[in-house]
Amino acid sequence: MKKLGLLLIALIISVDLMAQNQSYGVVADQSSIAYSAKHLLHSWKGVNRNVLGIAVVDQMNQQIEQLAIAAKVSDFDSKNSNRDAHALEVLEALSFPTVKFYATAIDLKQSTSTIEGQLTFHGQTKTIALQLDRSFSEEGLRISGNFDVIPSHYQIPLPSFLSVAIEDLLEVSFELVLHPKD
């Protein structure tokens, strides 16, 4: 009987802990991921407003437990259709259609967090660390931040214009709005 009582207490505690976690989904029309790139003669920015993702949040502590984000390469818009078409060729978008990030370690402090995870881009997966800001509201969660990507680390050939290659650096920024899923 004593074992049954302990088992029942353990079950109640585990159900209570599970109830504290809530799945949040990215609200695509309120979220974006952008990259900035530079060439000797000019710079540009491409924006993706069709971001997919999910976070698991500990409701009691308002802490992000897990985070996974994905975006189609073809959804980035630099406002120059020729540049975007060439980017799809260079990035081999038919073979590698998405960019994905999956958090593997989350270090939460006040409103700023350090997240380490796996970034999969152009078929290559690398561990990256990034800082993000997070805030909770009645509607959900907002996270934002930025990080750098070195295209050559992902075996991406650098496009060139007038025989000069672009800088081997993409500055990535993101603004994600997530709402609780039912």
Measured on Cα atoms, how large is the radius of gyration?
A: 20 Å
CATH 4th-level superfamily: Lipid/polyisoprenoid-binding, YceI-like
How much of the residues is beta strand, in percent? over 45%
* Computed structural class: alpha+beta
Overall mean confidence score, pLDDT: 86
**N-to-C SSE series?**
HEEEEEHEEEEEEE
Distance from first to last alpha carbon: 38 Å
> Helical region count?
2
Largest sheet: 8 strands, antiparallel, barrel
CATH fold descriptor: Lipocalin
Number of strand segments: 12
Widest sheet: strand ordering: 1-4-5-6-7-8-9-12
Taking pLDDT < 50 over at least 5 consecutive residues as the criterion, the unreliable ranges are 4-17
Global outline: elongated
The level of helicity is 10-25%
CATH class: Mainly Beta
The CATH architecture name reads: Beta Barrel
State the domain count.
1
